[in-house]
Fold this protein.
Amino acid sequence: MDIYNLTTVTQFILIGLSDLPEVRYPLFVVFAIIYQVTLVGNGAIVLAIGTEKKLHTPMYYFLVNLSLLDIFCPSATVPKMLENLLTKHHSISFLGCALQLYFLVALTGTEVFLLAVMAYDRYVAICFPLRYMLIMTKVRCVQLTAGTWAAGFLNSLLHTVSTFRLSFCNSNRVNQYYCDIPPVVALSCSSTYVAEMLVLVVGGILGISAFLATFISYIYIISTILKIQSVEGKHKAFSTCASHLLVVCLFYGTAIFTYIRPSSSPHSPARDRLISMVYGVITPMLNPMIYSLKNMEVKEALRRLLCPRACLHPLQ
C-alpha cells in the first residue's frame, strides 16, 4: 500500500445499536428512561447518605463514591448514544473519542479498585469488629478513596495516550456505540503491539490484583461468618456485606462477558454491543436498587428523604 494514499482520520463513526428507524426510536425511549432512573437512583443514594448523620460511616462513605461512579460512567457514553439514535450522522471527533475513552476507562478502573476497597472494609468490619473504628478512620477512608480515583485516572491516561498515538488511516468505523480500547485499536494501520501489551500487562496486573483482593477478602469473610454459632449472628453478619457481594458479582459477571471471553467463541458484533450495554448501562441502574432493597438503613434514609412528612407523622 502506498503510504501517500492513506487518509489520516480526523473523526470516528460509532456503529451504534441499530440503524433501523423502527427500532432506533423505541431504543431511544428505553435508554433515555434507563439513564434517568440511573441518575435519580444514584443521586437519591448520595443525598440520603449525605443528609442522614448516622450513615456517616466508612461503608456508606464508600457507597457514596460508588454511586457517583455509577452516575459518571454512563454519562460518558449514554448521551452520545442517545444523540446517535436520533441522527443519521454517528460521528465523533478524534478529540471527543479520546476524551470519551479516557473517562470511561478511568471511571471503570476506579470502580474496580473501589469494589476492592469496599470488600476490605467489610473484611475488617466482620473479621475484626472491635478494631474496626481504629483501622477504618476518616483519614484512612479518604486515603483509600483518593488512591482508587488516582489509580483509575492515571491508569486510563497511560492507555489513552498509547491508544491515540497510533496511526489511523482510512477505516474509522468503531464497532461499538462508544469509544473503547479494543475497537479503536483494531482500526489502527500501525503496529498495535505496545498498546495491546499495556492493556494485557498493566491493565491485567491492576485488574487481577483488585479482583484477588476482593475475592480473598470474601474468603475470609465467609470463613468468619461460618464460625459464628448462632443463626441470628450469621444472618446479621452476612446482611452487612450481602449488597456489596451482589454488586461485585454483577459487575465482574458482566465485565467477564464483555472483555474476557475466549477468542474461539463465535464473534457477533451485535451481541458484543448488547453485552457491553448491559455492563455499561444496566448495571449502574441496578446498583442503587440492590442497596436500597437489601440494606434497611439505606431504605429508611431514602424513605425519610422522599417522604419526610409521612415518615414523621405516619398515622396522621
Observations:
- The longest helix spans residues 193-227.
- Residues 38 and 285 are 4 Å apart (CA to CA).
